[in-house]
Amino acid sequence: MAHGGGGGSQHRGDDGVEADVAAPRWRFSRPSSQGGPLASAGLTSIRAVLNRVNSSVDAAGGPRPVLPLGSGDPTASACYTLSANDIYLTSGCVQAIEVMISVLAQPGSNILLPKPGFPMYESRTTFSNLEVRHFDLIPERGWEVDLEGVQAIADENTVAIVVINPSNPCGSVYSYDHLAKIAETARKLGLLIIADEVYEHLAFGNNPFIPIGVFGKTVPVITLGSISKRWLVPGWRLGWIATCDPNGILKEAKVNQSIENYINISTDPATFVQGAIPQIIANTKEDYFNKILDQLRNSADLCYDKIKDIKGITCPHKPEGSMFVMVKLDLSYLDDFHDDMDFCCRLAKEESVIVLPEYLSRDLPYELSANDIYLTSGCVQAIEVMISVLAQPGSNILLPKPGFPMYESRTTFSNLEVRHFDLIPERGWEVDLEGVQAIADENTVAIVVINPSNPCGSVYSYDHLAKIAETARKLGLLIIADETVPVITLGSISKRWLVPGWRLGWIATCDPNGILKEAKVNQSIENYINISTDPATFVQGAIPQIIANTKEDYFNKILDQLRNSADLCYDKIKDIKGITCPHKPEGSMFVMVKLDLSYLDDFHDDMDFCCRLAKEESVIVLPGIALGLKNWVRITFAIDIPSLADALERIKSFCQRHGKLETSE
């Protein structure tokens, strides 16, 4: 689907110069945004459902606080946004690249990448089956884009061109005139510009940095950035996607909606980093940045001057920005080197110069090694990794109903067929194992088991877990435990330590018989981790001390608080006519409650109930439809006792007000 029409017009560029232009035929409109897997995944995600319920709160409803009993998931909402309309926060620029490549990837499409360029683009496009076409950067012209080459390789299936400025790896900074030519070329070809401007504040040469977004009236631009380079905090993992689209072309093509859909099924940056950003931006003195630029300028000068004295390598262009420089090897002079890889490996070996966990073994009959554990940016990314690794054409996966909706969103996006098995409320939400055997077939790759259960609050017995394991063994299924038979366990520090915004999770392979290794599942996990964002490095660094030094008393207090909240919640619900709780919660932070719509008057379904409860009582609960169970709701009891009691009293008043009048015979 294309946007833009024929004919010509006078176009005034952002520099005020008029040029005769033809209306471009934009080639990046995404069919998936109007009904494909990304749209389905994003719009049915837990965030999208909670956003709908939250929007029902009556802003003029009085002084009572909004009581959020619908969250509890660290992924439910980001705590801070720079701009609701144009800016999307990501876990570093690597995730921003992932989002944009995933949004643009469609069968038959291609994207233009610079050569040389940042390899993460190549890795992500390869994974997404988006064809890569390379255009050259010309070293003799300060690594400018070969625009004639761009026009030669672009065709009607080309969706975007990536421009990295200041350049990683070249160290160049483009002039205003060259950026204008890039923008005009992209306009003529109908291409979106993805502007990687991570090093925007690290320009220290003759060319000042110019954001290519200044040409947004000429061509739509999506800018990728992060705080890591300007503030020199590379492990903080906070980036962004900014849409520079004054003409509304991206909005019309629904690219914005596709970005939002993908963000809805992805991990967020650490919330305390998000919360710190306003203070960091407001209070960092300009002198700090000037010192950084002076240091980089001095280092670049030294590097360039020293390289000139080294026979066998040459630097065609003095670096003016970023932190890098490209150097050419003269293999006619350097003896017996096959290529650049050989040179770098031998340099590392001869000169030591590089140019380019016990905690999880607890309660297991064997010890996990470092090779069994993969760190992720929270458990949401762990889910993303495993679903992406397992997704193959024609395969299916078994998910619990009710269950955590992020699994559903990710499988939908990955075109992995979902088959649901029931959890039986009358048996403490145990797995319906007969149902599992009935729906599994030769194309079923895994079963997801969430224990303790989100959303049900149940904890499975040893005997029931043994039956699940034996059923999986008979069916030849991998168990994904959102916690012989090969088992992949997903976990995070967020729940046990009650730090939901820290964004550190893990994937642990429990595979003493080597089945996963033989099937190369471990290698696939490692490959995916290699093209994904990492957890914040300072959180990683803190983990050994956190694990070693947290007293057991801390966890006991948390369990006591949760036990008391669960007891209060269960007892209060028993006194509310119109809702029932079939099983007292024994774990996690949630309880599933069934609506009696034969008593509650004039409600269409659970979504209607939740939206009207939010509007009338400012209490947020999660509709069961988001969890696969219609006409149920999930209540979070992990809040302070007075607020929980207040919220349940409001729910009681709401149900009484909307209950059908009982007539005496």
TrEMBL record:
Gene Ontology molecular function: any one: L-tyrosine-2-oxoglutarate transaminase activity
GO biological process, one term: L-tyrosine catabolic process
CDD domains: AAT_like
Keyword line: Pyridoxal phosphate
Cofactor (UniProt): pyridoxal 5'-phosphate
Domain of life: Eukaryota
InterPro entries listed in its UniProt record: Aminotransferase_I/II_large, NHTrfase_class1_PyrdxlP-BS, PyrdxlP-dep_Trfase, PyrdxlP-dep_Trfase_major, PyrdxlP-dep_Trfase_small, TyrNic_aminoTrfase
Keyword Magnesium part of the UniProt annotation: no
Domain Aminotransferase class I/classII large: 84-357, 368-651
One Pfam match: Aminotran_1_2
Family named by the database record: Belongs to the class-I pyridoxal-phosphate-dependent aminotransferase family.
NCBIfam families on file: tyr_nico_aTase (TIGR01265)
The protein, known as: Aminotransferase class I/classII large domain-containing protein
Source organism of the structure: Oryza punctata
